[in-house]
Amino acid sequence: MDLAPLFREHLAQRMKDAEAAMARTGFETLVISSGVQFEYFADDREAPFYGTPHFLHWCPLEGPQHLLKIQPGKQPILIRFAPEDFWYLQSPLGSPFWADGFELIECGTVDEVWAALGACPKGAYIGDEPVRAESVGLAANPEGITKHLDWTRSFKSPYELACMDEAQQMGARGHRAAKNAFLNGASELEIHWAYVQAVGCLDEDLPYTSIVALNEMGAILHYHGKRKDLHNGATLLLDSGARYNSYAADITRTFAAPHCDSRFVAVLASIEKAQQELCALVKPGLHYGEFHHQAHFKIADILLEHGILRGTDRDDAVANGYTKPFFPHGLGHHLGIQVHDVAGKQLGPDGTPAPQPPEDPFLRTTRMIDEGNVFTVEPGLYFMPLLLRPFRTGDKIEHSSKFNWAHIDALAPFGGIRIEDNVLVTKDGHQNLTRKHLPE
User: Fold this and answer.
1) Residues with Cβ within 8 Å of residue 233, at least 6 apart in sequence
2) What CATH number is attached to the domain comprising 357?
3) pTM, rounded to two decimals
4) DSSP readout, 255-284?
């Protein structure tokens, strides 16, 4: 895949966006840091390093302490931190596809990196060294310019989409390998190993900590355990992605083994169908809050269809909150360099907040869906005793008769279901980036 021409177009758009942001906010120079290496408290052991997202939006160069200097009408300057070091491997830059877009300066110390910036009239800085930035006269992380650039990051360029497509392919390989391991009776740890081996990465290379949940653990939304003593699970909820040039895929599938309860298998089939129906709704001009609300109607239909709720209808089930203990999270989130990407709660580049629905305070996206956005669509249905307790024995017990507790108790050992694809909003609808590589 030749990314060079796509990256040239991408970089040209970054310059236009940066110039617009600076003109709007009164800055004449923008400095972006790749980030600082972090050490654990009271230890000299370094945490895995992840670059500053705004830096990676401009340049996929890995590693800490690099700086970008951007001024209107000039080629951006990349100041690369390249120390001579016998403790750690220092790889030569070589000739990456993106290098021609920058004036390159290499420095052996951090002080030299900062000195190489030179004059930065009316300068803004984005990064995690605000004190140092302010000491050289830069305004550290000014909200006006960061919000403007956050907004531009929510519209993906062809270069970004090519990277995300590669990440989808990698994640699809991992999911297929993990499914096979599960069906062969593997433990959570063994399933995770199968996944990373198929992707061809280390744990720290994944865009987020994988969720490998057998049976009841599928009801814990961010379960990060990797049990090694449990084999031959009845269900597997696998939420794991991949990264390519810092761009993420975020994919979830739920699988049932042949010995799984047929009632759970039937609910799983209904969620899979509902997830694809929700994807089909995606188009520009749809408000994400309404999109999320439609998901609750789908969940209500499934709960009624399978006798989990009774004596009510879909409208009352949603209005009275009967679906929320089964589907307690948002339908999705923006995706890009960050898994939970930026600008999901903005109305525009000026950073005006998109109103947060009071009934859904946890939504990560509350804006209108626009062409060029990439986000996840991930409905779920879980059997969580904690969230069901108010309806069973707590302050909502007057609604208890609407819940088929015997059926819920029978399904609870299988945890829960989540199906997640990544979709691109197109001019007339959407493109499912995940199903292209993982149709099942």
Assistant:
1) 182, 188, 214, 215, 257
2) 3.90.230.10
3) 0.96
4) EE-TTS-HHHHHHHHHHHHHHHHHHHT--T
